[in-house]
Design brief:
This protein is of the alpha/beta class. It has a single domain, classed as Rossmann fold, CATH 3.40.50.1000. The protein has seven helices and eight strands, in the order βββαβααβαβαββαα. The strands form two sheets. A six-stranded parallel sheet has the order 5-4-1-6-7-8. A two-stranded antiparallel sheet has the order 2-3. The longest helix is centred in the middle third of the chain and has 15 residues. The chain is globular and about 50 Å long. The structure holds zinc ion (ZN).
């Protein structure tokens, strides 16, 4: 069973927009810009044997500000660029009281069911505190990439940039599963 790395799309795979000091997701393909700098680190993670699954809250679907086909185009582009194993999304608004809108752990639990994952051996990577909180509840290890959206809640690690992620994951996996350390040392 492969361990998975869950990665929030906005701010990492694609650029986040900032309006009145608040982050917001792109609402059209024109606003959607892939972050090419993370292609290589993510390839390294996949080559090291991790599944790569994007997760994201997209309340614009529920609010009517984001059209589904526009989002489908964005996600097709993400899929092609990063060769993702999956993209899981919450389409709800905060008023919908759904179980999947992060910081709730519903998307992680859904992924565990779908791909038979052991969440205690999975990692969550994001710029945002909501992902660290969902990871905490689900039993995953959280790694925040430093940003203005890190918050002050629970998180396991903070990295200065996503380029530091492959080495950190190798180190953490070796601690969790020492047999990997032996394999990689040979
Ligand atoms: Zn939801």
């Amino acid at each position: 069973m492969k361990p998975a790395v869950f990665i929030e799309r906005d701010g990492l795979l694609n650029r986040l927009l900032v309006e009145r000091r608040q982050p917001r997701s792109p609402l059209s393909l024109e606003e959607f810009q892939i972050n090419q700098a993370v292609v290589e680190p993510l390839q390294a993670i996949q080559a090291a044997g991790f599944m790569l699954i994007a997760t994201t809250n997209q309340p614009g679907l529920s609010r009517g500000t984001l059209r589904r086909h526009e989002l489908d185009h964005m996600h097709a582009l993400l899929q092609r660029t990063f060769n993702l194993d999956g993209i899981l999304l919450c389409p709800h608004d905060e008023n919908d009281a759904c179980p999947c809108r992060k910081p709730k752990p519903g998307l992680l639990l859904e992924a565990a069911f779908k791909w038979h994952l052991d969440l205690e051996h999975c990692f969550v990577v994001s710029e945002m505190w909501q992902d660290a909180q969902a990871a905490h509840v689900a039993g995953c290890t959280s790694l925040l990439i430093r940003s203005p959206w890190n918050g002050s809640g629970h998180h396991d690690f903070v990295l200065e940039e996503l380029a530091d992620l492959p080495a950190k994951l190798r180190q953490l996996r070796a601690l969790q599963q020492p047999e990997f350390a032996v394999c990689e040392a040979v």
